[in-house]
């Protein structure tokens, strides 16, 4: 198990196959972490 835990967001997928971009920004005392990923929605 991870000691740090996590942040989670639940979203709704489109009815038809699609590609969506998901981005996150984490701000900490020692800097920022920015991440962007493509989510492939399939049938």
Low-pLDDT stretches are none
Shape: elongated
Total number of strands: 2
Helix content: under 10%
Biggest β-sheet: strands ordered side by side in the sheet: 1-2
Largest sheet: 2 strands, antiparallel
Based on CA atoms alone, the radius of gyration comes out at 14 Å
Reading the helices and strands in chain order gives: EE
Q: Count the DSSP helices.
A: 0
Report the mean per-residue pLDDT as an integer.
Answer: 86
User: What is the oligomeric state here?
Assistant: single chain
Name the structural class.
Answer: mainly beta
Distance between the termini: 31 Å
Strand content: over 45%
Walkthrough of the structure:
By secondary structure, this protein is mainly β. The protein contains no helices and two strands. A two-stranded antiparallel sheet has the order 1-2. Strand 1 and strand 2 form a beta hairpin. The relative contact order is 0.32. The model has no long low-confidence stretch (mean pLDDT 86).
Summarize the structure.
It contains no helices and 2 strands. The protein is mainly β and 43 residues long.
List the keywords.
mainly beta
List the helices and strands and how they pair.
Blueprint: E1 18-28, E2 31-41
Antiparallel strand pairs: 1-2
């Amino acid at each position: 198990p991870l000691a740090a835990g996590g942040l989670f967001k639940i979203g709704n997928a489109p009815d038809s196959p699609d590609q969506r971009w998901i981005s996150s920004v984490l701000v900490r005392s020692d800097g920022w972490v920015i991440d962007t990923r493509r989510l492939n929605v399939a049938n």
